[in-house]
Amino acid sequence: MIEFKNFDFDDNERYLDYLHRCIQIPSNASPLLLLASKEAHNVQRAYAENLCWHKFSEGDMDIWGPPAGDWDEIDWKKVFKAHVPAGTIFNFVPEYLLKIWQRELGDAIEVDDDRDMWDYILYLDRMEKLEGKKFKRIRNAKNSFEKNYTYTIEEITPEIFNDLWRFHIGAEKNIQERVENVELAQADSDQFLFAMEHWDDFKNLFGFVIRVDGKIVAYSVDEMIDDSHSIGLFAKADYNFNGVNEFAYWNDAKTNLERGILTENLTDDVGEENLRFFKEHLYPLVMLKKYVVTYNPAQDVRDVKISSQRDGGNLTLKISGKLNTDSANLAKNEILSMLDGMQNVTFDLNGLEYIASAGLRILIAAMKKIRAQGGNMTVKNVSEQVREVLDMTGFAQIFSLEV
Fold first, then answer.
1. Domain 304-402 top-level CATH class
2. Environment class of residue 268 by beta-carbon count within 10 Å: exposed (0-12), middle (13-18) or buried (19+)?
3. 48-65: per-residue pLDDT in tens?
């Protein structure tokens, strides 16, 4: 099983290496957010099977996060069998990883969708240009702010943290009066405070404040994940200044592009109607869909299915599925033990989609055993894919094949 341990800032570089291999990066995988939630949710980390894993607590329940790594190169069935206990729940699983799991794990997983968890991926070049009819509202609001207010833009540094925190608290109080999910709003505030307290411990945070007459009226903080993608972690605005929110998002796109970043991941809307309306009208490049996945394997999950029919000294073994390395190793002793005392054995491979070298070795061992018992072995109903393997390896000439 995977051994989860505590982690700290000094592990960020290693974790980012695994994160960079993911084709989709959910906002919940943010290095800062994981560290900021570590105490409140008992977040732990592990490295196993060329993946980085996380586990956290929700009440009395342990929840796993989606493992980071090169998802396409993992033998998921093998990994889950070896390391993931039955009943394990994964939260925030990105759509790309889910598709792989559905293909490789099949009925062993149950999937639940939660629209409130989806992230918004912005194409920043489009956000900066604000061209076309669909950006008219944002463009007009942004231009109105520029026209009606004398503003300055200032990079976030530790020197302005006290001023920034006072603004954040005021903006957060205003938000909490207008939203239903106050608990999540408070968590956002705690994470923002953590970011300021540990600003120098992270090498990839950047942001800005917008001031009008010296007073902060908006801010934005982003986390650079790689040289082309960032996560928009925190943003607040004083809505008494018309157009300030639209101007802030426009300037955020401009700031990211200046760093060479092309896309930005905005965090989920937690189901808040007003927030969803605004984010949807930023016209994201794509929605990063996330799912809850529960691992519920059958008692004996194998790639291959075996059934047998006996008639005196005659035996027919029907094999279907995939006779790959793992399933062959599991099935070898079972198959060979069925041959005891048999004179004529037929391997019916109807439904066998794939055979690996370990599967071929089972057939060879079976042929040797049957011959030693003075009997004969026949292989029939071979699919085109399996026949191609037998031809390439020469076993089509060794085994007695029945067309």
1. alpha beta
2. buried
3. 999 999 999 887 788 999
